[in-house]
Structure formats: C-alpha cells, structure tokens
Amino acid sequence: MCFKNLYIPKKKCRFAMYSNICKILKPYINHVEMKKYNFNAGPSILPREVIENTAKQILDFNGSGLSLMEISHRAKDFQPVVDETAALIKELLDIPEGYSVIFLGGGASLQFMQIPANFLVKKAGYLNTGVWAKKALKEAKHFGEVVEVASSADENYTCLPHNFTIPTDIDYLHVCANNTIYGTEMRKDLDSPVPLIGDMSSDIMSRPVDVSKYTAIYAGAQKNMAMAGVTVVIVKDDMLGKAPRELPTMLDYRTHVEKGSMFNTPPVVPIYSLLETMRWCKAQGGVKEMDRRAQERARIIYDEIDRNKLFRGTVAAEDRSLMNICFVMNDEYKELEKPFLDFATEQGMVGIKGHRSVGGFRASCYNAQPIEGVKALVNCMKAFELKY
Prior knowledge:
single chain; alpha/beta; seven-stranded mixed β-sheet; three-stranded antiparallel β-sheet; 16% strand; globular
C-alpha cells in the first residue's frame, strides 16, 4: 500500500499522527486473521495437504481438463482411486484375507439398520455406551430380537461398562468404540465368544485394530479419514448372505462387494479426499504413529484439566477418549462457562463447545490435529485461570 497521500496537519502532535495512521491501517490489520485451531467433532480437521491436493483435483482431475466433481465414476482414471484407497486401508489396518472394503453413502446412521439387515439372524447383542450406540440398538429391533448386554446409562455414560458377560447365543455383539458426545473410548478390541461389529466412526485409523475379531467395521469418514459424504465398511466375506430375509439390492453388502463399490454412483470427491488422507497417514508412519500422537495430545490436555482448578474432566480416568476430550467448569466456577467459551473463541479455539445434550467443552483431537493446537488450548486454559 502507498502512504504518499497520507495527510497530517502541521499543527497536530505526534499522537494525532499516530492516531491517523492507525485509522488508515485498521482495515488491513483486521484483515490479518488470528490463527485458528479446529477442534470440531465432525466434520473435522483434515491435513492441509489433503485439502490442497483434493482442491487441485477438483479444478483439474489428473490433467484431464475436467473437474473431479464432474467426471464419470466409471472413467478409467477414477477406478484406480477406488482401488488404491481400498488397498491402503487394508495395508494400514493390516486387514487379513477374506475381508472386503467398500465405500457407501448414508453415513453411520444408515449402517445402524444395514448391519442388522445383513447379519441379524435370530438375536443380536448391543453395548449401550451412549447416544449413537442407543440409536444403533433401536434400529436393530426392526430386524429381530435385540438384547442390551451392558449399559452405562445409569452413570450418564461417563464410563464404559465393565465386567459384563457376553451371551454366546447372539449372532453378534455391536460396540461403539468411541463416544463423541460423552468422551469415552474402548482402546482395546474385546475378546468375544461371538463375532463383533464395530462402529469406529470417530477413532478408526487412530490405533491398531485386530480386524480378525470383527464381522464388520463401519465408519463415517468425516472424523479421521475424509470429508463428509462417504462411509467406509469393512466386511468379512464369508459372513454375508446368512440373514433369513430377502434384502433390497442397495442394502445387501454383497451388491457393493461384487461391484467394487460401483453399483451406483459413489461419492467421488469424498473418496478422493479419503485416498489423500490414507496416503498422508502412511507417509506419517501409519496407525502406530497416529496412536502415539493421539496419546501425546490427550496427555497434554488431560494433564491440564486435572491441574487447573477451574476445570474437571467428566469421564472415568480409565475410559477417557483420546479423540474427544470432554470437560466442564468445576461447580464453584460454573458461572465462568460462557466467559471461558468466549475467551477461547477470541484466542482462535474453534468448536470446543460441548454437545448440546451435555454442555461443557469438548476438544476433538483427531489424527490431523497438530500438537501446536493442543498446546494452544492448554495455554488458553492457563491464561483464563490467571485472569480469574
């Protein structure tokens, strides 16, 4: 910008000159935005290079002169995207032979009914660990008998059920591995006498998983894997086709396995962003490195929650999620909840307000969350403590 037309009256003092310059520079100063740290629970933070690489393909896919948004899903250049994405997921999760990876629409909410439609023969068991597990249980009742194997509802889902017995007469046990609203997480795969079904929407790719224990794993991708719009489903092939019901074509997993996720038009752009994220994850060191980072991020924030007299955690220490870190103001500082939210927002913290059903705060720390972000949040908490 040029200052040659800046007029300062001769009789004005230095303060007037400073004031005049500030008025002129103010629009430019305000235009420089504060660094933002994305703690949204989902859709959530993605690696910057994933966003940039996907954006480039949206403008021109593989030099074709066409946008990724407008190409045919059956174009010769797109099939390799699907193939590489599925192969990378199998590699990163060390998925054994006999499993298929498919890409569907409808989110995890559709899987709540598609899972029992395909796998419930006589009776299914569900762990009730929160809102999403409860919704999955409700949908399963449309297809047969459902038993609640264990629940933490009496504790307002602030812990996971422990010391429960898994019935051996159920077709499968459904678990929600990470509970985004309440901030609990199952960090280990259960040893189960029956097949497991896992909703891993919010912690898939954040830790190693023994896929061989599962009949199916499903995940809405908009937490750790991709932009919203695609659901990843991992299914054990020899468990398909056993349900005693004729399924609509689109609800039958065999349809999508046989057609390689191409039975109907798949969500093209979300699948491509998924590919870029899987490439990023592999380059960073895979799920073992994601696990290490998750533990480091969570330790930094939980240590501050436990130290800072203004705040307290809401979850039993042994069940704390590494993905969704939930906390509230201590009772004697309850009136500071809104001031802290306002203060944190002013400091660039985005999306830390807790779910509307529980209140408080929630720092979602998915794979792409940099350590810089969690340290900035901790510094914000410390600064607020000093202020009050």
